[in-house]
């Protein structure tokens, strides 16, 4: 898991002023739509925890309240968009493993697009299940430290009881990890403590990471960016190690 939180932090920092804001909104709207569809068209966040979480993630990317409300109203109606989740596994250059999660209304388009991105960046699409063993599925909760009123040691003790397995204390963010099965319990615990998350999601954490020379690592970052630019891609996971040299290079961009 080494360096994982640094990837998350850079993503959040870039996201604050990113030109890709519209794509962030698109992804969160899909999350809202799926949360409603998978819970019998329930558009009430009070009784739909998945929707409640999606709304919090929407706030985390500064989506306006009226945009969130429109997305909920549309997703709850008869003419709601229909999405399905599909995943892809493959290798980028230099043996870096990738796990790509998509939400799409056109599977053929998404398959063709993901395959093309791998090919253009000297990677290869594998078969489903071929790389899943390289990742652990975890709940990851990102809190903005400036918004926290808690003493971090006291908070950790509270959260361990709810299933927290690891904490990472970064410059701007406090990150909590839980087992996949405790994601809902941890969400409820944070809610009961009236702690708002910047982001809460299930992530695939690499069991081991791989360090590359800077120029080779930049090739992997280009592949990550290509996936994140695709509207059908919700999340991209990989096992490239975030080195100090790479972090400094990314901060310059």
Outline the structure in words.
It is a single chain. This protein has 253 residues and is an alpha+beta fold. Strands 3-1-2-8 form a four-stranded antiparallel beta sheet. The protein has a four-stranded antiparallel beta sheet with strand order 5-6-4-7, with helices on both faces. A hairpin with a 5-residue loop joins strand 1 and strand 2. Helix 2 packs antiparallel against helix 3 and helix 2 runs parallel beside helix 4. The longest helix is centred in the N-terminal third of the chain and has 17 residues.
List keywords for this structure.
four-stranded antiparallel beta sheet; globular; 253 residues; 8 strands; alpha+beta
Strand-helix topology:
Blueprint: H1 4-17, H2 21-37, H3 49-60, H4 65-76, E1 84-91, E2 97-104, H5 107-120, E3 124-125, E4 135-144, H6 152-160, E5 164-169, E6 173-179, H7 183-192, E7 199-206, H8 214-229, E8 233-238, H9 244-252
Helix pairs in contact: 2-3, 2-4
Q: Using DSSP, what is the number of strands? A: 8
Shape verdict: globular
The stretches of 5 or more residues where confidence is low (pLDDT under 50) are none
Strand order of the largest sheet: 3-1-2-8
Q: Helix- and strand-based class? A: alpha+beta
Order of helices and strands: HHHHEEHEEHEEHEHEH
Strand content: 15-25%
What is the distance, rounded to the nearest whole angstrom, between the alpha carbons of the first and last residues?
Answer: 24 Å
Q: What does the largest sheet look like?
A: 4 strands, antiparallel
Number of helices: 9
Average pLDDT figure: 90
């Amino acid at each position: 898991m080494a360096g994982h939180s640094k990837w998350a932090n850079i993503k959040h920092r870039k996201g604050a002023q990113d030109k890709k804001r519209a794509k962030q909104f698109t992804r969160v709207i899909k999350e809202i739509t799926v949360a409603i569809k998978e819970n019998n068209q329930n558009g009430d966040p009070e009784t739909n925890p998945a929707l409640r979480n999606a709304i919090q993630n929407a706030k985390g990317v500064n989506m306006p309240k009226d945009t969130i409300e429109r997305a909920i109203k549309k997703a709850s109606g008869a003419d709601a968009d229909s999405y399905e989740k599909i995943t892809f596994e493959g290798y980028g250059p230099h043996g870096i493993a990738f796990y790509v999660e998509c939400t799409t209304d056109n599977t053929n388009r998404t398959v063709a697009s993901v395959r093309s991105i791998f090919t253009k960046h000297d990677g290869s699409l594998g078969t489903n299940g071929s790389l899943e063993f390289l990742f652990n599925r975890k709940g990851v909760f990102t809190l903005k430290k400036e918004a926290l009123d808690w003493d971090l040691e006291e908070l950790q003790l509270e959260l361990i009881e709810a299933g927290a397995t690891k904490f990472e204390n970064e410059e701007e963010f406090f990150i909590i990890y839980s087992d996949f099965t405790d994601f809902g319990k941890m969400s409820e615990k944070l809610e009961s403590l009236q702690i708002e998350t910047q982001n809460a999601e299930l992530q695939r954490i690499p069991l081991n990471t791989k360090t590359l020379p800077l120029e080779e690592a930049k090739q992997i970052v280009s592949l990550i960016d290509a996936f994140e630019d695709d509207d059908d891609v919700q999340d991209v996971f990989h096992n490239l190690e975030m080195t100090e040299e790479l972090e400094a290079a990314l901060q310059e961009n």
